[in-house]
Structure prediction request, 470 residues.
Amino acid sequence: MADSWVNSAERIGADLHLELTGPGGRRAALIRALREAVRSGRLAPGTRLPPYRSLAADLGVARNTVADAYAELVAEGWLTARQGSGTRVAERAEPLRPTARVPRKAPPRARGPRHDLTQGTPDASAFPRTAWLASYRRALQQAPNEVFGPGDPAGRAELREALTEYLARARGVRTEPGRIVICSGFAHALRLLFGGGVLRGPLAVEAYGLGFHREVLAAAGVRTVPLPLDEHGAQVDRLGRERAVLLTPAHQFPTGGPLHPERRAAVIDWARARGGLVLEDDYDGEFRYDRKPVGAVQGLDPEHVIHIGSVSKSLSPAVRLGWMVLPERYVGAVLAAKGEREAWASVLDQLCLADFVASGAYDRHVRRMRQRYRGRRDRLVAALAAHAPHIEVTGVAAGLHAVLRLPPGTEASTVKAAVWQGVRLDGLAAFRHPATDMAAGDGLVVGYATPSEHAYGPALEALCRALPPP
Prediction:
């Protein structure tokens, strides 16, 4: 169950934040939170609460849990429930007013922004619980006894075989199970490759990208050299003496757009000529909306590309599983860097993901989420067209975020205005490499996947209020 919940203004008509913490289980936590919301006046008399099915979906609890909580509060007089009118705050449930007999409470804990529009995370409420549980049960029932012993540093053969088939079919990757090494995600892959001594710097990177990845590389003693970007992606013709380059060719992060076909071929030619290596971060490779799928660069030359992917965007960052598809000459060194005992990726989770992929459940989930996120993207574009038509939206043909282009000199003030509106997001400058002289202009990086369905509408309204006028 989530520790907190932000309402949908479309259903309640006012901003509401419930803190769902404390002893007594899920039902008790919800009852306490709703009582306090009524006492404090945050839920005014007559306010209609969301249907218990909707609230249960947002919280990730059983419907009966919410239904029982509503029923108890109705019995206590806090709420009323009538056929056709839904569940509402009782008219006599007045907010608590301080008196001399009421002890003063400690100041409430500071709360974060109500609306999360940061990039990089999927809708947590959409995790396919039922299908995942079915795969977990099958995996446990069919697992041989040796599964419960020490793990293979390469990862379970079942998962590597399932990924071999899936990546070939969905991403155009050419490999075999023996050249796939399972890891816990992209950052873990970087730590193994550079912290483990498999590769050494300097490393060319895109001028705009995740600062966290640069920090991981810096901790391993790797100097990163920024490559300028334009509308066709990284300018790979600017590669210098580096022997390796890190790219997001399927959907450049954060500016958006795929690496142009001529540049994909050019970076492979560069790698062959210099004996170099391309590290391919398959960021957002599975979520495309207005264009045909762009295959992996690895398919052009498997011996000069390390293809790295994970399920953090497509499934959940809570499932700590990713993979490296390696040129044959690097497999032994990566396994040596991992060590004899698998210390990162749960073997049982690997077996579950293997079944999830092989059964077709992963494909179905990706298709469903692609449709949902496209709808989210379209709602964002429509809201901006209606309320801020002077703001250009870019990078929306694929992925889980959009870039909103702002008038020059307005990025910092707009980010502050968003904070005042209760919106968490990032400015484009936050992703700029500190050593680059390239400037991509002012902008906001808006993630449209994170909020639940009920919270997305209010988040868009708050975002539009924060944008600068024409």
